[in-house]
Amino acid sequence: MHLTILVTGATGTVGCEVVKQLSMIDGDLRVRAGVHSIIKGENLKRLPGVEIVEMDFEDQESLHAAFTHVDKLFLVTPMAKDQVQMAKTLVDEAKKAGVKHIVKLSVMGADAEPGLQLGRWHRETEKYIEDSGIAYTFLRPASFMQNFVNYCGDTIKQEGKIYMPTGDGKVGYIDARDIAAVGVEALTGEGHEGKVYELTGPDAISHGEAARILSEVTGKQVEYVDVSGDAARKSMNEQGTPDWMADAMMELYDAHKAGYSEEVLDSVKAITDRKPHSFRQFAQDYKECFK
Questions:
Q1: What is the Cα Rg of the chain in Å?
Q2: Own/partner long-range contacts of 150-158 (Cβ < 8 Å, ≥24 apart)
Q3: Structural domain range at position 112
Q4: Any idea where the NmrA-like domain is (predicted)?
Q5: How far is 178 from 246, CA to CA, in rounded Å?
Q6: Are residues 155 and 286 located together in one domain of the fold?
């Protein structure tokens, strides 16, 4: 009997990796990639056993179609002002469709009190899933290594600089490919129901150390510029970042700067039986994004 897994946010940093890794599994597995736009999901069509489905949170019919005959859900919601309500809508649909297991992408420290706003949003969704009665697994990763591409890639390419307000604070950055590997194991393996997995890479590094590694790997000089919080907020405002998002990001950066994110765990190796990618390996694999 086949297993159908729906991945929401399938064009995102982690969702895309989950779809890719699921598509490589032999067996009667059907992967349904939920996307906001069919056009953006074109690249996923080339993967074996992957079906693309458009999902509109304001269109009940599209959600119903996406969840039809789905057995398991990998839940990713965008960073949006109404992200909690989006997630609750998806959980409600999952319950109506008889989904048996939800693996949710959360964030490290989601259950901390009082914690960060980013964590509080994720924890509200986690509680809603717990109350739904559906079996769950929560993945709580540290910050992604791929954010160096997403948020710093342009300035590294154009200026050879990383601008961040994090001082010498270290973070246990994790590669999105390792988060996806844990997610795939939780979706297809046994004994992961009711578990909460906090995930990091193998080392905690600062932006200054990241700049040094990127310099060595790419062969171009990369410098870390420790900007003030006011300068960082001004830059976000100039780029059109809404206040609620800027507030949440500045709170996160302050936590990094204070050293609250430097914990390193061996959970990826324990769950997947392989070592997580180091930052140097990430830089090597993605070096064309910085050159």
A1: 19
A2: 150/13, 153/289, 153/290, 156/214, 156/222, 156/290, 157/289, 157/290, 157/291
A3: 3-141
A4: 4-269
A5: 27
A6: yes
Residue among 8, 34, 7 at smallest CA distance from 187: 7
Counting other chains too, the contacts that 213-221 makes at CB distance below 8 Å and 24 or more residues apart are 213/279, 213/280, 213/283, 214/148, 214/156, 214/283, 214/290, 217/280, 217/283, 217/284, 217/287, 218/283, 218/287, 218/290, 218/291, 219/291, 220/160, 220/290, 220/291, 221/160
- pLDDT beyond 70 at 239: yes
pLDDT band at residue 1 using 50, 70 and 90 as cut-offs: low
For residue 3, the cross-strand partners are: 29
Residue 194 domain-assigned (yes or no):
no
184 assigned to some structural domain: no
Together in a domain, 23 and 99 = yes
Calpha distance 125→258 (Å, rounded): 27
**Where residue 283 sits, what CATH number does that domain have?**
3.90.25.10
97's tokens: 């469709």
Residue 258: φ, ψ to 5° = -80, -5
| Closest alpha carbon to 110 in 135, 132, 87 | 87
The whole-model pTM stands at: 0.96
For 6, the token pair is: 């729906």
> pLDDT at residue 267 above 70?
yes
Question: Could you give the number of structural domains in the chain?
Answer: 2
* Banded model confidence at residue 233, pLDDT cuts 50, 70, 90: very high
Q: What are the angstrom distances between the C-alpha of 58 and each of 33, 54, 90, 99, 128?
A: 18, 12, 11, 21, 20
Q: Tell how far CA 252 is from the center of its chain.
A: 15
